[in-house]
Structure prediction request, 783 residues.
Amino acid sequence: MLYREAGDFKTSYAEDNQTFPIKFDRVGYYVVLAVAVLVVPFFINDYWASAFLIPFLIYAIAAIGLNILTGYCGQVSLGTGGFMAVGAYASYKLMTAFPWMDMVTVTLLSGLVTAAVGVVFGLPSLRIKGFYLAVATLAAQFFLVWLFNKVGWFYNYSASGQINAPEREFFGLILTGPNAAAATQYLFCLAFVLVLAWVARNLTRGTVGRKWMAIRDMDIAAEIIGVNPLRAKLSAFAVSSFFVGISGALFFTIYLGAVEVGEAFGIQKSFLVLFMIIIGGLGSIFGSFAGAAFLVLLPVVLKLVGVDLLGWPTDIVAHLQLVIVGGLIVFFLIVEPHGLAQLWRVTKEKLRLWPFPH
Amino acid sequence: MKLGTLTIAAIMAASPVMADLVFPSLSYRTGPYAAGGIPFADGYADYFTLLNQRDGGIGGVMTRVLECETGYNTEKGVECYESTKGEGSLVYQPLSTGITYQLIPKTAADGIPMHTMGYGRTSAANGAIFNNIFNYPANYWDGASIAVNYLLSENGGSLEGKKIALIYHNSAYGKEPIRTLEELSAIHGFELTQLAVDHPGQEQKSQWLQIRRERPDYVVMWGWGVMNQVAVQEAANIRFPMENFIGNWWAGSENDVLPVGEAANGYKALAMHNVGDDFPVFADIQTHVVDAGMAAGNGDQIGTVLYNRGLYAAMLAAEAAKKAQEIHGVADITPQMMRDGMEALVVDEALMESLGMPNFGPEFTVSCENHGGSGQGKVQQWNASTGEWEILTDWISSDRAVIDPLIAEDSAAYAAENNVEPSCG
Prediction:
C-alpha cells in the first residue's frame, strides 16, 4: 500500500541512478526536508535545540565523516574525538585571529585544517591494517588532546585552558554565544548537514567511493584492478577528517560555546561516534543519521520517561542508559551488523511486497 | 519521534504552575566523580527538605529541589540547564568548573544567578563584571594563597629555597591555581613544580616518580574524584611524609583517604567550613528528615565533609532567598530578586548560631564589588585511627594584595572579550 511502484518507469540513466528511485521515498525525503527547513525553525525552543536538534545535526556530520573512513573505506579509526578537537581549536584560532571572518569561512577552513591533520595521521594506514591501525589512530586521539592541553598558543594562554567562542553574527543575526536564537543556530547547522550529506552521498556512489569500497572489500584485489591504495586511503582520511573537523568546529562554536579539550573531545567522544555508526549502520549515509539520532535522543528520552514521568532517582536512570547502550551494541553486532539502516532496508523490501508476499 | 515530542510538550505544558521556590541541583551520582557528587547532592537536598518539614519552606513558600544528573559532563550539564531553567530555577550550583564556564554566558543572558562555592571562574568575584555569578565564601586563588600562608606559618614566615610541587587535575579546574602560585613563588622565593594528571586521574605513576626523584618539601594537590585517593595512595607508596601533603578543599573528604587506610594518616587538606556532625542542625536533620524517611540518596553520607559542603551551599542559598524576600517584600521571588538577595547577603556568627550551625563557616559580607566573600579557609588533617578530619587552624586569610590585582586583570579581559560594561548599582 505504501509503495505503489506500478507505472513508475525509468526512461533515462539519470532517473535510474537517482538516490531515491522509488517515488514514495523521494516524496518522503522532500517532505522531511520541507519540515526541517520550513516548519521546525518556527517551533524550536532553547531546550529542544540544545538538548536534541543541534547535537543531533552535529553528531550526524561526525558520523558521516567516520562512516566514510570506516564504513566505506574500511579503515578503523578511534581518533574521531581528536579530529573534532582539531576542528574546534582551528575555528577558535581563526575566530580570535581574524575577527572579521564570517562563520561559514571559519567552519570550512577548520574542516580543511582537520583534513590536513587527518592525512598526516592517515599515512600509517598504508602500512598497517585493522587493529593495528585502530591503535595508531588511538595514539592520534591521545596526542592531539595532549597537544591542545599542553601548548598555550592553542588556547591563547588563557588561565584555565578553556576556549570560549566569541559572539559572531551571520547576516545580522547573532549566531554564536548565549544571545543567539535557537532557530538561527539550528538553520546554520542544518545547512551544513544538508550540503555535506549531499556531498557524501554523491562521493560514495561515484568513482571515489567505489575505490574506497574496493579497498575496504579487499585491498590487494583493488590494487590489481588499478586502484591506487595511497590515493584511495589518504583521500578517505582527508574527506573523513574534513567532515569530522566541521562537526568539531560547530560543536564548539554553535553548540557548547566553551570547551575544555580533555572533557569534550576525549576518548569517549571517539567511542560515541563509533557506536553511532555501528548502531546506525556501517557504510550508509542514512545509518549515520539514524545512529546519531538514536544515541542523542536515547538519554533525553530515558530522562524524560524515567525521571520526569516515573520519578526514578537520577542515578538509576543514568546507569540504565549505560546498560541499554551496551546491550544494544552487543545486540546489533550479533543480530544486525549493518545496523538500523539495514533494518530499514529490510522493512522497505517487505513493504514493497506487502500485502502480497510471494 | 514527532508524536513523542508533541506528547512530551503537552505533558510539560499541562502540569500546573506550582508556586514554590525551585533550587535546581545539577548533581552527579554517576561517573568517576560520583564519590564527590553524591554527598554534596544529598546535603543540598536534605537541607531544603529540612526547611520544608520544619519551617514550611522559606518565608512560607515551599522549596523544591530539581535534581538533574550531569555525570560531570558539560553536554549533559547544558541539557540539564536548558530543561530546568524554564521552571523558575532561582540559582544554579553545578559543582563543576567545566559546566560553570559553560553556564556563565548562558545565565548572564537569561538573568539567572549562579553560585560556584569555592570553584568555577575565580575572577567572577568581581561582581561589577560578573553581575550574576557569585563564588563566596572563597575561591581557588584564595585556596592557593591560604595553602602558601599556612606553609609560611609552619616555616617561621619564610619559604625561601623550598620546593613545592603542585599536582593538579589537567582541566580548567586544576589549572586555576597555577597563576596565583607562580605569583606567590616569585614573592616568597619557593620553587614551583607543576605536575598535570589527566582525567579521570587513575594514572599517576609517572608524576609520583618525579616527586620521588625531585623530593619537594611540600606537595599541594588540586584534585577531584578518583584522582584524590589514587594520589594519596601513591604518596603512601613512595613514603612521602603525609603531613607535607596538602590537598585543596575538593581533595579533603573521607572518600579520598579511607581507601588508603592507616597510611593516609596525617594527610592535610584545606577546609572552607567546619567538619563533623556536632552541630545542632544535625539533630533537626535526624528528626525531620532522616526519621521521616525523606533523606536523599542512601542517607549514609550525613556528617561527611562533602555532605556538610552541600548543606552549607544550601544554607547560603536559603539565606539569600530570605534576604531577597526581605528586600522585595514578596514571598515568591524571581531569579532576578534572588540575585539581589545574594548580593546583599551577610553571614555572621549570630546568623549561623540561629541556624544551628555555629562557627560552621567564615563570617562574610557580599557586595557588588566583591562577590567572593572573605576568602578564608582552615586546614584540616586526617586522623586515620579515629577516622575523622581534625581542624588544625583558625580561619586563615588569603593574600589579597596578590589576588585582587589578578582578579581585576582576568575579569577585565573577560569584559573586553564579551563587551561587558563594568557597573555597580
